[in-house]
Each structure stands twice: as structure tokens, then as C-alpha cells.
Amino acid sequence: MQKILSIPLSIIYYVLFFIALAVFHPVQWVCFNLFGYNAHKKSVDILNFFLVANTYILGTTYKIENLDKLPEGVPLIIAANHQSMYDIPAIIWFMRKVHPKFISKIELGKGIPSISYNLNHGGSVLIDRKDPKQSLSAIKKMGEYIEANKRSAVIFPEGTRSKTGKPKRFAENGLKILCKYAPSAYIVPVTINNSWKMTRWGSFPLGLGNRLVFTIHDPLAVKAMPFPELFEKTENAVVKDIYPIRRSES
Predict the structure, then answer these.
(1) Helical ranges in the chain per DSSP H
(2) Helix pair 227-240, 173-181: axis angle to 10 deg
(3) Does the predicted model carry a pTM greater than 0.90?
(4) Which residues pair with 125 in a beta bridge?
(5) d(Cα 53, Cα 45) in Å, to the nearest integer?
(6) Distance in angstroms (rounded) separating the CA atoms of residues 159 and 139
């Protein structure tokens, strides 16, 4: 029954989603080319406010725990589990005060209104997963960028989305490079829950009535401990708060 009800609501959601992308693409262009970074960032923040608000049509609600734990004025490495594309607008909007930037796959850099423009001009980097050398170079660039500008890099160490909510093993390389080239940074572990339920039936129709929970854990200073210990603490902090998946949900 819920799946049937979701069909018209998902259609409305996608119409509004693509309208927002189409409208904010030229807005971003104007802001970036005429007024610079700060104006462009505000346009991206407002776009993602609408992308988050659009999900309310689906009965989606959000809870952001411990937002006050995000340090300001220092580079941050936000390390989170990854459950769906709906993780990203929420991070951009609710954590906007720390200027989150993303390490994204290169395929997203072309052809998607607003999203591709922001990835190419807003401080994020694009990696080619088939080219390890290019990927490592791009992540190095991101580390240097957040170190110099006191902004935030968002990394999903699982590498790909967990479509069932069950966490995958974290990979070390991306985090290690960010820590090396942003030595004054703090790693902020973030646990995301219930985002996978938005796409439990695929991209259409979408899940209804989900409460997405983002839990921000205590920051860890990169300089405070050797990387192996830092990595272990980060993964443990993220994974320990992921909700167990009930059989009826899978």
C-alpha cells in the first residue's frame, strides 16, 4: 500500500527536484562569475535547502544530533557512512557553516544541472576510480584546499553506498592522504541512519515517512595520534551508532 501511495508523491518530488536543479544552474553561474565564492556558496546552500525541503513531500524528517560539535575556523575532514544520495543535500544544508566540499566520482562532473556546476566550481574534487594516480592527486588537492581555506572535506570511506544500511569496510587511503595534506585538521566522524530507506525500492518510487538521523561525534585532531589509531577511532565511532537492520526492513 505504501509503495502504491508513493508513486504520485515520488512523481511530484522528482518534478520539483528537477525544477530546482534547472533554476539554480544559471543562478550559480551568475553568483560565481559576477560575485565570487561567497555568493556562489549561498546559492548552493539555498539550492540544497530546497532539495531537503522537497523530501518533506515524501514525509521525510531530519534529526541532526550534536551540530554544536562541529569546530569552526579550522579545516575539517567529515568522515561518514554512505547510504543514499539523500545524504549529500542534508550535509550541505545542515552543516553549511563549515563549508562542506565533496570527493565525488568523475561521472557526476558533466551533464547534471546545478550539481555538476557546483562540483566543478565550488571547491569539490572529482576522482576517476579507474585511475588510482588521478584519484590520489585529486584527494591531495582537496587536503591542501581545506588546509589553506579552513573548510571541510566530506569523505565516504566505504567508497560506495550501502543500499541496505549495513556498513561496508572503510578504506584507508583517502583519509590518510587528507590527513597528510591537512595536518591541522580535525576528523569529524558522522553516522547516517535511515537514508537507505529512501531508495529501498530503487530510485522510483521512493520510500515514505523516513526519519533521517545524522549523528556528529567528537572531533579527533589529526595531530593528536598516529594515523592507524585515528583511522580505527573514526571507523568505530561511525559504525557503532548505525542502526541494526530488522528483517522486515531488508
Answers:
(1) 2-30, 37-54, 87-94, 115-121, 132-149, 173-181, 227-240
(2) 120
(3) yes
(4) 103
(5) 12
(6) 13
